[in-house]
Amino acid sequence: PTHEPIDPVRYIANRSSGKQGHAIAAAAAAAGAMVTLVSGPVNVPDPPGVKLIKVETARDMLAAVEQALPVDAAVFAAAVADWRTATNTAEKIKKTGKGTPELALVENPDILATVAQLKTRRPPLVIGFAAETEHVLEHAKKKRKAKGCDWIVANDVSPRTGVMGGDRNTAHLITAEAVESWPEMSKAEVAERLMLRAARHFAESEISV
Ligand code: C5P
User: Considering only CA atoms, which residue is closest to atom 5 of ligand 1?
Assistant: First the structure.
């Protein structure tokens, strides 16, 4: 997740645990990749063998991601806050007893779309995630095109699935050519499978050169 401050003691957050993103970084490192993990405020362990950059807000995350370029493959598994408050007050907002404060929101940058649409330094393989609660494949296919990424990993995050915060995931890999629906597995296994697919993709592109 990212945290978007409202004032020095309060923030806007979401239920993402960071487990899937950390598992992907761990799987990529285990497969021999040089990995930079840009990670928000989470309580999961830092994977071994990666360069870890801790950030708090969406804007910090974008800056850290841009700093990490160029790379061969970029995976965007963060649950970036869509909005931040228009003003971040220096002092704690006080209860006045005379009504409630109005929180004006502004949109955060879309990190995945920004990187996927770079004119120079666009990573050759850009992988996004689509956390959906309905019409998972349909929404995810549209998202792949709208963001300009190569692959989308789509998953159902309805509360009944327990994906948000849980250890398991049921994912679909959407490429320009096909949709692969994977059985339910651990987030570590989703990560390993995704990195295996990425390695195969690079091996195949080398052969076709
Ligand atoms: O638009 P939506 O949030 O559903 O898209 C999900 C994908 O976009 C994920 O890969 C997520 O990491 C990425 N994203 C982003 N920056 C945002 C919002 C989403 O990189 N501000």
Answer: 130
Supply the pLDDT for residue 164.
80
Nearest C-alpha neighbor of 50 from the set 34, 67, 68: 34
14 is catalytic: yes
Task: Express each pLDDT in 139-180 by its tens digit.
Answer: 999 999 999 999 999 998 888 888 887 899 999 999 999 999
Atom of ligand 1 nearest to the CA of 115: 20
Q: What is residue 180's three-state secondary structure?
A: strand
pLDDT, tens digit, 9 for 90 and up, residues 77-93: 999 999 999 988 899 99
Question: Residues in the chain with pLDDT < 50?
Answer: 209
Tokens encoding 113? 């779309």
Per the document, the length of the chain is 209
In sequence order, the β-bridge partners of residue 130 are 154
Burial of 116 (0-12, 13-18, 19+ CB in 10 A): buried
Structure tokens at 63: 């800056």
Q: Is 148 left (phi over 0), alpha (psi -120 to 50) or beta?
A: left
Asked whether the whole model's pTM tops 0.90, one would answer yes
4 CB-near residues (< 8 Å, 6+ apart): 11, 12, 13, 57, 58, 81, 83, 84, 85, 108
199 Cα–ligand 1 center, Å = 23
